[in-house]
Specification:
A: 138 residues, mainly alpha, Helix Hairpins, 5 helices, B: 276 residues, 2 domains, 3-stranded antiparallel beta sheet, 3 strands, globular
Chain lengths: 138, 276
């Protein structure tokens, strides 16, 4: 019982990111509406970002900006005192890239709506089938 | 469809949960991710690049190639949006709306009829009726310049405090989007045209890639900023921080222009005349 409690508490962040990933993946697979699928994709991206930030955390450490003054170059820096900067670097770019991909996804959704007058997956698929059968017979 | 989706998601979650059992506990300084390459960055970035913000040093110097290609990804997203959305054929709308500013009366001019005379009294407004909102306009007029100043600070001071090209570029783009929302798209396009937005997208990537080429011309490897010491007064270490600033400016310009361009294209669905 005590082991289970430590397992849950010591990795609470991981469980939360896994839950968020599952929510996003479910939305991407099961939702019919394309905009809801895009929202699911964004939830999944957010989960990945939180996961990376969790990896970067260190107990009793501060943000990765070295304390510095006019003449205090390289005074015995310890890696334990600063959190891991690498996940932050990776996620910094990932956030902006996520916004750009969201823009492209929304542009595609708008174009699909303009052509099929619907954002519903089933509706678009049935229209696509009708189009191809028309081409085959005519 | 739905039961299958639930089964897949639960399987995925169980796999991740099983893997998470072996993860180090939260905040463990001896976690594998924190003992491999990141101690080197923390201990050497100040002496090698004279940039106290380790994130900026790693972003633009140690992982310069990664950031270059991330910038190109953002640039490609902007270009893809241009080709997907832009409607170049100009179609006359069914009707246009004008507001007579002194009296507050709105006019609807049907297709084919002459618009009201060009004067400061008439203002074209969007077809989805927008009420005249003095509070929003005045507030945004106050906020926009300060947020742009703050964005420039975030870009320029990214070496010493949290910040950098990506964050500052997003703030700069957000200030222009705020202006477009608070007034309308035509006013925003008059100040920051589509041509300028696309041109700045290209310019940012050009500055970044050009900094790399400049390093090559000065006899070092691509994006090895140490070679820039010839151009700036100072040693190779100080030149690295100047090189980082140059590429951060490039990143900021690209990010800002792509954000604004995405907004223009999405809000007006490619017509660039009215929207939101």
């Amino acid at each position: 019982m005590n082991d289970l409690f430590t397992l849950v508490v010591s990795k609470a962040n991981y469980w939360m990111t896994i839950a968020l990933m599952m929510v996003g993946l479910y939305a991407m697979i099961a939702k019919q509406n394309l905009v809801k699928k895009i929202i699911g994709m964004n939830i999944l991206q957010t989960a990945v970002i939180l996961f990376f930030i969790t990896i970067g955390a260190k107990r009793d450490a501060t943000i990765p900006i070295v304390k510095h003054g006019p003449d205090s170059h390289s005074q015995g820096l310890l890696a334990v005192d600063y959190i891991n900067p690498l996940p932050h670097v990776l996620m910094l770019t990932a956030i902006v890239v996520a916004v750009s991909t969201l823009g492209v996804a929304l542009a595609l959704a708008i174009q699909i709506y303009r052509r099929y007058r619907s954002l519903d997956e089933e509706e678009i698929l049935s229209q696509l089938k009708a189009d191809t059968s028309e081409v085959n017979h005519g | 469809m739905k039961p299958a989706a639930i089964i897949i998601v639960l399987l995925f979650g169980a796999l991740l949960g099983y893997a998470a059992m072996d993860f180090p506990p939260w905040g463990d300084p001896a976690a594998p991710a924190s003992v491999h390459v990141s101690p080197y960055y923390i201990e050497h970035s100040l002496t090698q690049t004279s940039v106290p913000n380790i994130v900026t040093a790693v972003l633009a110097d140690y992982r310069g190639y990664d950031t270059l290609f991330e910038t190109i990804v953002i640039f490609s997203a902007g270009v893809a949006c241009l080709f997907l959305m832009r409607v170049f054929r100009h179609t006359e709308p069914d009707s246009r709306m004008y507001r007579h500013l002194p009296s507050g009366i709105t006019l609807r001019v049907a297709k084919g009829y002459a618009p009201p005379p060009e004067s400061r009294e008439f203002e074209r407004i969007d077809l989805t009726w927008v009420p005249y909102n003095l509070v929003v306009k005045t507030t945004s007029r106050l906020i926009v310049p300060f947020s742009q100043l703050f964005a420039l600070y975030v870009i320029a001071h990214g070496h010493h405090s949290p910040g950098g090209g990506f964050q500052g570029g997003v703030i700069l783009g957000a200030s222009i989007v705020l202006y477009a929302i608070a007034t309308n798209m035509r006013a925003s396009l008059a100040r920051f045209s589509e041509k300028r937005a696309v041109g700045l997208c290209v310019l940012g990537v050009f500055i970044y890639a050009g900094t790399g080429v400049l390093c090559m011309l000065l006899g070092a490897n691509y994006l090895d900023y140490g070679a820039l010491a010839v151009l700036f007064a100072g040693d190779g270490v100080a030149a690295r921080s100047h090189g980082i600033l140059m590429v951060e400016v490039g990143v900021g310009i690209t990010v800002m222009a792509v954000m604004v361009h995405l907004y223009y294209s999405l809000a007006s669905s490619g017509r660039h005349d009215e929207g939101l």
